[in-house]
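User: Can you write out an input/output pair for a complex, sequences first and structure second?

Assistant: Here is one pair. Inputs:
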Amino acid sequence: MLKIFKYSFFDLMRSRWSYVYFVFYLLIGFVLLFLNNDTSKAVITLMNIIVVLTPLIGTIFGVMYYYNSREFTELLLAQPLKRTTIFLGQYIGVSFSLSLSLVLGLGIPFVAYGVTQSTAIFDFISLLLVGVFLTFIFVALAFNIALSNENKIKGFGYAILLWLFLAVIYDGLFLISLVLFQEYPLDQFSLFATIFNPIDLSRIVILLKLDISALLGYTGAVFQKFFGTNIGIIASTIVLILWVLLPTFRIVVKAKKKDF
Amino acid sequence: MFKSTKKMNKNLTIITLLFTYLFRKIIRISKKKKIVFLCSVLLPVSVFTQQIEVCKTCPIKTVKEAIQNAAPHSTIKLKDGIYKEYDILIDKPVTILGSRKAIIDGNNKGYILKIVADSVTVKGITIKNVGRSYTSDYAAIYISKSKHFVLEEIKAENVLFGFLIEKSKKGLVKNNHIFSNAVVEAGSGNGIHLWHSDSVIIENNEVHNLRDGIYFEFVTNSKVINNSSHHNLRYGLHFMFSNNDEYHNNEFRDNGSGVAVMFSKNIAMTKNKFIYNWGTASYGLLLKEIYDAEIIDNTFQENTIGINIEGSTRINYKKNNFISNGWAIKIAGACYANKFNQNNFLHNSFDVSYNSKLNDNNFTNNYWSEYTGYDLDKNGVGDVPYRPVKLFSYIVNKTPETVVLLRSLFVDIINFSEKVSPAFTPDNLVDKQPLMRKIQ
């Protein structure tokens, strides 16, 4: 598996898109800090970007990589290799290289502007962690979609739709249901609703880190109790890990049965 | 008969001449020996303001004894040491002086100083361990129906109430440090508590870890200047039914729910700082039923709600800074003819929250950090109006739970569409002349 991982990783490291992605984050980081010069403010702005963008890039890149490397995969399948190792290796290769672009692209400007000395260092680290989690989750979801769809166009369509659903439509439905059922206690409901969407979950984890917890007011007491404490942080991390593991597990199952 | 009167007249003139001569002579002498003359005049006064010393080895060992023996307007000097006394009644005009090491320890029983006379001054001493009670307002210093009182440089420690001032006039409370270790609201008191008083100046005090830092009820013509009120359970400053008061240059930090000003008229608030009042029901400043107030040059930073306004009319908000608050201004209703001019709104999650479609308040010439318009004629005023009330803040007002969706992409999208064509937010609540640069 390590060998496949290395292969895909270095293959991607040589690809133009990794560099574009890396340079994009580098630019965003520098521009934000240049305009703001306040690392903690920049962290907030960055949150908006990371929460929306890493899933998008993750899904598109994952689907693209799977379809592009199909011939290479078929070649590998002809070798005496386990299917699990091939697909997991590829998956981890893609996720890892994307995460590396993210961490380096944002890390360099922020370290250059002295985030290590500022109080925002923990916020920044948790932001990067969330970004990495989101990358792993959405690449896994993308692989799932690609494995299930032979048709490239269909695959891309589903991938985009998945991103659109989780990033925008889900929140819209969430908002409508909150407004419609405002007569009822909604704390538990909204807690569950956020757990089922990794984008929402990461957004709220970061928001609470950035001390907006008080905004939730009395109505959000359950939220604050849940996410504001260490248990909440551990629980949300576990949920994010589950969000990585479950799709990965499905990749393994699907890959084993798939007829090439 | 005629002759005799003439003679009398002559006599009178001689007498007057003699008197003027004598008078001049006296003045000349007194000029030469001025000091002696003055001393002879002041001598009876210095006898009048006698000084009583109190210490463990002095003839007078307790404060109570000293007050009993003191003549009106005398000075009682407390030497360093601990005086375990409480319920000390001061019923005559005296001055009590001492250093920080002169400690009156109430042993957790009752009031410590009870002042019921005019012209009482207490300066420099430490007072600690006031009684705890759920039924009596035990205070370090209790003042009732007194005029011209001065409380200065006092350290009050472990108190229920710090200074409890009732029905008093023309006082000065300056440079004091009052603190306790309040845990629950019901079992704690206020730092400086004024009730039914007039013309009191409260200056340079530090009050913390109490219920309310400074409390005003039915207090008129008073000033609160340069105080620092922090870490109190409830309000940093609490203002009820108090007209014509001013407070300037105070700092209210990290209090349970900030500062509350209610049911009052003609209040001026300038250059105060309201900082870090975070919490589920917290705000920098709560205004309720306030008329004709001036709120100028204040800073509201990192509060859950910067200013919470309810039923307040004809208020000028000018040159205030709202920095990184959850809501900078939350207007609840029945607020008319308020003016918001030249304020800075910087990085607040919500700039203005408004709960009705009717708007009679004026927002002009403010700087909004989220303003995205342009200024083609370069006059420093944006060419596109700014709408401080977003659709999302309207939704959050209706359904508070939706705040969970703060900063999500969907919310940005609906905010944008509302900005383009307002349907839910009051369409005249708009800053037609938003500034392009921050007001310094």
